[in-house]
Amino acid sequence: MNNIQKILELYCGDNPLRKNLHQPFQQGDHVFASDGHTLIRVPASRVPVQYAIQDKPSNIAANHFRPADIATPVTLKELTERIDEVPKIPEMEDIGECLPCSECDGDGQVVWEYRHWEKEFDCPECDGTGYSDEATFKETGKTVPDMNHTITLHGFKFKAEYIIRLSLTMLLLKTDAATMKSHSVHTFKDGVCFSLTEYVDVLIKPLLTSENVINN
Ligand SMILES: [Zn+2]
User: What's the 134 CA to ligand 1 centre distance in angstroms?
Assistant: First the structure.
């Protein structure tokens, strides 16, 4: 897998209700990948593999890459400094999958009682599997930046997770300077576009702030 494929994979979603976003896809002459909050586009000519052509979500280029009128330079160094300011929290590891279900004690069956009748049926909590699929986390002993923290960049607030992913993308592209493109009249629908090279654009939805709510 080359770096462009790795980068596209970073932006895929895992929402079970949006299966069309689980892998990169081609629309028009670009390949896109999105988790619903961030969106990357790369010209198909730069991508070494053919991804499935998808028309949903429709008209991505026109709907999400509206020409911007403000261009602000941002550097990897600046992003790294903002990321370093994010408070650290204990790193958690998901150990959920194989824990026994707490409702049926791992049995998979529960007993329904009514007066003197008893009937066994599949545990509704775990669907009869006996295992809890609820994510259960354990501390690893390391610390990591709090992904839900807010990072402010040139007046826009972003979830730290997305800026960390952006900096990782710049590292993979071996670029240390980007252009942040925004709109002087910013609407709720608009993302902020980071042009990382002349062919890789990443769109990130900023968090709502009182200023950009008033602008709408
Ligand atoms: Zn159960």
Answer: 11
Task: Give residue 14 CA to ligand 1 midpoint distance, Å.
Answer: 25
Instruction: Identify the H or E element spanning 152.
Output: strand 150-153
* Residue 186 CA to ligand 1 centre (angstroms): 49
As a CATH number, domain 66-89+144-216 is 3.10.150
- Tell me the whole-structure pTM to 2 decimals: 0.77
CA of 17 to the centre of ligand 1 (A): 24
pLDDT in tens, 158-203: 999 999 999 999 999 999 999 999 988 877 778 999 999 999 999 9
Q: How far is the CA of 189 from the centre of ligand 1 (A)?
A: 42
Structure tokens at 164: 């960390």
Ligand 1 centroid to Cα of residue 7, in Å, is 39
Q: Where does CATH 3.10.150 sit in the chain?
A: 66-89+144-216
CA distance 136 to 166: 28
* Beta strands, E only, 30-87: 30-34, 38-43, 70-75
